[in-house]
């Protein structure tokens, strides 16, 4: 199936997709800041450059977009019909990279939280409250996703 947009328009559209400072990430950052939790952003010294690093709690937070990180079972994670094979390859590469970074963070002693975009869309306050409680706890990992 051919793309419905011209190559120039598609390129322009894709170039505006941000890798950091996204709306979901900003929601999490603002919520944790209000809760009195301080963090660093996108620490290049850590595997996968986590979105937020909370050194005092030895915890990192990864804010994942459901489409780009292919949240299992999420309706926002549908692969486009146009150039499906190319998209599948790109998105599965993202998942593999996420798994490597997650494993490397755990292996180096970090606690890891994954917050999915759909959870923030559904109930941002509840998701951030859950995340805050996890940070202050001793839990090793948490995944905050959409509630059925």
TrEMBL record:
The keyword Lyase does not apply. Its EC number is 3.1.-.-. Gene3D superfamilies: VSR Endonuclease. The keyword RNA-binding does not apply. Keywords: DNA damage, DNA repair, Endonuclease, Hydrolase, Nuclease. Pfam families: Vsr (PF03852). One of its GO terms (molecular function) is endonuclease activity. SUPFAM superfamilies: Restriction endonuclease-like. InterPro entries: DNA_mismatch_endonuc_vsr, Restrct_endonuc-II-like. Belongs to the vsr family. May nick specific sequences that contain T:G mispairs resulting from m5C-deamination. This is Very short patch repair endonuclease.
């Amino acid at each position: 199936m051919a793309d419905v947009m011209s190559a120039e328009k598609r390129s322009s559209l894709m170039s505006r997709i941000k890798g950091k400072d996204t709306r979901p990430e900003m929601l999490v950052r603002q919520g944790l800041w209000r809760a009195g939790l301080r963090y660093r952003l996108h620490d290049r010294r850590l595997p996968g450059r986590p979105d937020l690093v909370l050194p005092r709690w030895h915890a990192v937070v990864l804010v994942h977009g459901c489409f780009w990180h292919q949240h299992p079972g999420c309706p926002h994670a549908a692969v486009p019909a146009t150039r499906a094979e190319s998209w599948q390859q790109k998105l599965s590469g993202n998942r593999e990279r996420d798994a490597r970074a997650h494993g490397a963070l755990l292996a180096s002693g970090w606690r890891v939280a994954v917050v999915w975009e759909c959870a923030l869309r559904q109930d941002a306050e509840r998701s951030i409250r859950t995340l805050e409680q996890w940070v202050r706890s001793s839990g090793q990992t948490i995944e905050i996703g959409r509630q059925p």
